[in-house]
Design a protein that fits this description.
The chain is of the alpha/beta class and 154 residues long. 39% of the residues lie in helices and 18% in strands. The chain has helices at 8-14, 58-71, 80-89, 94-110, 129-140, and strands at residues 31-34, 50-55, 73-74, 114-120, 144-151. The chain has a five-stranded mixed beta sheet with strand order 1-5-4-2-3, with helices on both faces. Helix 5 links the parallel strand 4 (114-120) and strand 5 (144-151). The longest helix has 17 residues, at 94-110. The two termini are 16 Å apart.
């Protein structure tokens, strides 16, 4: 999915987000999905770290890591499991590494709670781990209160 010229509505529609599910802008260039639009309120756990996700290349990855470090958040790569997986998959072919990252992403996104932040680069693939694993998990996770999207450019 190329979001360079896409509107937020077309971007979110590509993830199955339509109508009342997509409401409320937050800040300049961000979009907020609130749990109230999905059903029951979120049961955010006090003292949890904000989960931060990214997709669409190194610009998005770097922006997510910088934001997480400055705001008490954590990307998957910042976790102990993520650091171990990074070392394990270094130089590994994606056909082998991909399923390992997919499993870790499934666990990370399933355990998210409260408000989560998502940094999207200009070229987010509809087949990416974010599109196929993380976002569906976040949308179905009753502990996630809001999903805040941040577009990042080159």
């Amino acid at each position: 999915l190329d979001i360079a010229g896409a509107s937020w509505n077309s971007l979110l529609n590509s993830f199955g987000c339509t109508g009342a599910f997509c409401r409320g802008a937050v800040g300049v260039g961000s979009l907020l999905l609130t749990r109230g639009a999905f059903g029951e309120g979120a049961a955010a756990v006090e003292g949890t770290t904000t989960s931060v996700f990214w997709s669409g290349g190194s610009v998005a990855q770097n922006a997510a890591a910088e934001w997480a470090a400055a705001n008490g958040g954590m990307t998957l790569e910042m976790t102990e499991a993520g650091q171990e997986l990074t070392a394990l998959t270094q130089g590994m072919d994606w056909t082998e590494a991909g399923p390992l990252w997919q499993a870790a992403s499934d666990e990370f996104s399933s355990q998210a709670s409260g408000d989560v932040h998502v940094f999207l680069g200009q070229n987010v693939s509809s087949g990416s781990i974010f599109s196929t694993v993380e976002l569906p998990n976040l949308l179905q996770n009753p502990n996630v209160g809001s999903i805040i999207f941040h577009p990042v450019g080159p």
